[in-house]
Amino acid sequence: MRRKSTPPAAPLPQRLGVDPVHLRLPVVGGPWPTVRAYLAERLPAAAVERVGALLDEHGIVGEDGLPIAPDEPFRPGAHLWFYRELPAEVPVPFALDVLHHDEHLVVVDKPHFLATTPRGRHVVETALSRLRHALALPALSPAHRLDRLTAGLAMFVVRPEDRGAYQTLFRDRLVHKEYQAVAPYDPDLELPRTVRSHILKERGEIAAREVDAPPNSESRIDLAERRGALARYRLLPSTGRTHQLRLHMSGLGVPILGDPVYPVVLPEPAPDDFRRPLQLLSSVVEFTDPLSGHPRRFESRRTLSAWADPAGWAGSADPEVRPAPGPPPSAPAQAARLS
Known about the structure:
Elements: E1 21-24, H1 35-42, H2 45-56, E2 79-82, E3 96-101, E4 105-110, H3 127-135, E5 141-142, E6 151-157, H4 160-171, E7 176-184, E8 193-200, E9 209-211, E10 217-227, E11 230-237, H5 244-251, E12 280-288, E13 295-299, E14 302-303, H6 305-308, H7 310-315, E15 322-323, H8 331-335, E16 337-338
Parallel strand pairs: 6-12
Antiparallel strand pairs: 1-2, 3-4, 3-16, 4-6, 5-6, 7-11, 7-12, 8-9, 8-10, 10-11, 12-13, 14-15
């Protein structure tokens, strides 16, 4: 099988932590006299209009970083770059706290509502884009994924050559992960227990579902504390399926507070509605570092607002996860509180 060649380095810098668009023309010639003619045939109408305007404004560059001409001849295999028009995004008004930063790894305490990586309408307002821009680390990449609605620990790799080593930890289940969740208390629910099921998440569907098939997910559910009709749960997933903990908790009859999908998909809130965040927190990540061999343990400094301030949660007075009391962060972490 023919291996895909590595594209050359982009001659354009990132903009707000977002890479420029890379486009390679077909290596085999065709009936296109110009780059514009090729793009007009191959791209959707809206994109053709945007790219055509960029050609006229000399906003598309070649491998040498110089703008190509509006009537640039088609050249098989040529590499082109340009900045895409970024979607209008409502700023996520919560800080992204850097807990650890060395030459290999960045670990952050992510707030609710901030996506981990660019996707769909969330591009600049993501943890990855914020970190790349604020820390001047254009090659930063995620070691794993944390849902946009979930708060807590997320790991990023500084150097591309190290990414595989850290991603393998998650793939091979060598990372101990703990979560906290606030949900209704059910006196008839026997805990602790281990939930195993086959989770199916189909493209284009908001909710995942459990189907009758061999298990592909496993979660340990335990009761940490009870306070009246609510409880704080300790969740230990052995696998990392999409929405796994949310689906397992809902299946037990104790859906996590603030969940807009389980057990029922609710209408999507307005983009600027940051009330009632999902009460799920990635609280502990522990592993043996694949590069140094040293043990690593990171703990979130956040608590869930429905547990820390039940009255505020009930009245939606303070929707965000608050920093937990404790010793102050180190000087580098203090300096890297990203808004």
